[in-house]
Specification:
Elements (H helix, E strand, L loop, with lengths): L1 H26 L33 E4 L7 E6 L5 E10 L5 E12 L8 E6 L3 E5 L6 E8 L4 E10 L3 E13 L9 E2 L4 E2 L2 E2 L3 E2 L9 E6 L3 E21 L4 E17 L6 E8 L6 E7 L3 E12 L6 E27 L4
Antiparallel strand pairs: 1-2, 2-9, 3-8, 4-7, 4-9, 5-6, 5-8, 10-20, 11-12, 13-15, 14-15, 15-20, 16-19, 16-20, 17-18, 17-20
């Protein structure tokens, strides 16, 4: 009876934490000052408002509007000998202290060369940002300090390559340091003969045969837990953070296969974020109740109210059998304390 009450309490705690994390997220509003990033067409040649481009190159660009209504700037080269560069500028102000540039881009190359030939350049900023020629959307995010007033020149270009480059959702967000998100940091794994070296089993059964650390060429490490009978089995590890991280996001991709539950409560494959203290108080969590061979991304946010230097990441099964796999685990600070 006490186990059922405990699992119900944990579930209700998760629901409460989900609601409060949404409320905390809604309080942070970052303002985009780069109106040119909307790529609004202007003039008879269709060159986006605020951007400059030689008129004779306008035939190579277009602005697409997919169903979601977000404009996409497209540069198209039919042959490898063409060059197209659009440019715009905005004045950086010292009062901003820090800025974040963000965009999504992809390059679909039609010739046989593999090196990137399309990209975005931020003059008086981080410089050149090449776009991989693999046809996949890439999220670009650059953060840097602003110490003096000067123009940020943004160039979007495709050089000496046949293919299509697309750019969308371009933003420049000024804010004081505490409101600027930091970069996503991948959680590192260390393999010890096929099991994760930095993790430990925290349940009664210490069966490492249920755990495997798999390495793939493209994705990197995959943490897999597999058991044939419904049981409670957890792994956990300590994740170090900065005490100045006020709000933190943990994201990952998970896959569940052949889940089988006992039917005695809220059994599930689970991920828990807990305080690194004696009680290991719950900060955030989510459960997966259904089998799904597709990788799905889960995101949880929590507040570091105690200015802690670490937290506990716990994964595993609660009275459940099957296979639970996790990959692409990242940690990202979203807000910083005032003294950062």
């Amino acid at each position: 009876m006490s186990i059922k009450v405990s699992s119900l309490f944990t579930l209700l705690t998760c629901i409460f934490l989900f609601a409060t994390s949404n409320a905390a997220r809604s309080r942070t509003k970052l303002v985009n000052v780069l109106a040119q990033g909307e790529f609004e067409p202007a003039g008879e040649y269709g060159i986006p408002w605020g951007w400059t481009l030689p008129v004779w190159d306008a035939r190579r660009i277009s602005v697409l509007t997919p169903k979601k209504g977000i404009r996409v700037l497209q540069i198209k080269h039919d042959s490898a000998g063409e060059n197209t560069v659009l440019s715009t500028s905005i004045t950086l102000k010292p009062v901003w202290k820090k800025v974040m540039f963000q965009a999504y881009a992809r390059f679909i190359r039609k010739d046989k060369k593999n090196e990137p030939a399309g990209g975005i350049e931020l003059v008086n900023g981080p410089g050149a940002i090449p776009i991989p020629a693999d046809g996949k959307w890439t999220k670009i995010q650059k953060i840097w300090e602003v110490t003096e007033e000067k123009p940020l020149i943004i160039r979007i270009g495709l050089w000496e390559a046949a293919g299509v480059m697309q750019v969308t959702r371009m933003k420049l967000i000024p804010a004081v340091p505490k409101n600027i998100p930091g970069p996503e940091k991948p959680l590192e794994f260390k393999s010890n003969y096929g099991v994760p070296a930095d993790w430990k089993i925290v349940t009664r059964v210490k069966d490492w045969n249920r755990v495997a650390l798999l390495r793939t060429p493209k994705i990197g490490y995959i943490l897999r837990i597999k058991q044939t009978k419904p049981d409670t089995f957890y792994l956990e590890r300590t994740v170090n953070i900065s005490p100045n991280w006020k709000r933190i996001r943990v994201s990952m991709e998970v896959q569940t296969l052949g889940l089988e539950r006992t039917g005695q409560g809220f059994e599930t494959a689970r991920v828990e974020i807990r305080k690194n203290n004696e009680k290991k108080d719950l900060l955030a969590c989510f459960g997966v109740y259904k089998s799904d061979d597709k990788w799905k991304r889960f995101v949880k946010e929590f507040e570091n109210k105690d200015a802690a230097e670490s937290f506990i990441l716990r994964v595993g099964f609660w009275k459940t059998a099957g296979t639970f796999a996790l990959r692409k685990i990242t940690i990202q600070p979203l807000e910083f304390a005032d003294n950062d």
